[in-house]
Amino acid sequence: MYNLIKKIFFRFPPEKIHYQVMKGLQILHGVPMGKQILHSFCMPKKTGLERTLWGLTFKNPVGLAAGFDKDAKYTDELASLGFGFVEIGTVTPVAQPGNDQPRLFRLPTDKALINRMGFNNGGAVPAAKRLQKRKSDIIIGGNIGKNKITPNEEAISDYEKCFQALFDVVDYFVVNVSSPNTPNLRALQEKEPLKQLLHHLQMLNEQKAKPKPILLKIAPDLTDSQLDDIIEIVTETKLAGLVATNTTISREGLATPANEVEAIGAGGLSGLPVKEKATAVIRYISQKTKGSIPIIAVGGIFTAADAQEKLDAGASLVQVYTGFIYEGPTIAKKICDGLK
Predict the structure, then answer these.
(1) From the candidates 80, 178, 179, 270, which is the catalytic residue?
(2) Which of 1, 55, 94, 307 is deepest in the core (most CB within 10 A)?
(3) Model pTM greater than 0.85?
(4) Digit-coded pLDDT (tens) for 137-156
(5) Is 280 in contact with 314 (CB distance < 8 Å)?
(6) Is 179 a catalytic site residue?
């Protein structure tokens, strides 16, 4: 059924149809029996999938990655689609429009997306206000970043503002320094700037009565020596874990004609082409640390087998994004029901 619907959806520009579909989901969720209908189609039937991590109990290990619900507008609706957790953002301290459109592109042959959204969002404070009003008890992650106009030397201040604004309304934080779509952002992945940023956030965290887990989202394009640095930093700053991985800037191995890919231009590539890279990063970190660093896996997860591969590589939880676009609203149910 969804394959037919997808053909219709794919006739429209990706960003436009995204908002139309989410608005439709919001309407359905709000009408009498709408929530029950969504539950009947999308909620996992399999039991015993709970995961406890950082003192949080996830109803199942399948979450929705950041980037889909940037402004925390649809968390209740997404909870009705069977996800165990939803990560909102990336949010920045001040609202920003992001990069010029078009900025989101499909590569159906590769089951992939290219995006250069540029952290388009309405700001951390409005997102926090929406989360205060949510009705579901789904676990919420807050993915935080810096504004485009903020120089890297002042980035710590931006992350602090987001942290403080969201602290009371999210269950865990993800520090995003790995998006390729904000100029110079990835430079913050370098050892010393990253240490300073994470030490500062952990200092703020320790001042709270109940500190929240802080994770770091990393790129799939890091070398082994860079991953060794990440492991050292996570250990030194006592981070709760990692999200592996963000989108890649690589275009290797795509079946989509090169001229079409070149015409799209810059942006992060997600979906099936990132699957092996993400798994390799997870396996490397897990083996190197003997599984001591919890990892949320994201990158090329479309099926239960894809999710199981990430879990077997050392991940504790998984997230979908591009897979949701290609597989439809029952993806969480299908993955959960197919897990070992």
Answers:
(1) 179
(2) 307
(3) yes
(4) 999 999 999 999 999 999 99
(5) no
(6) yes
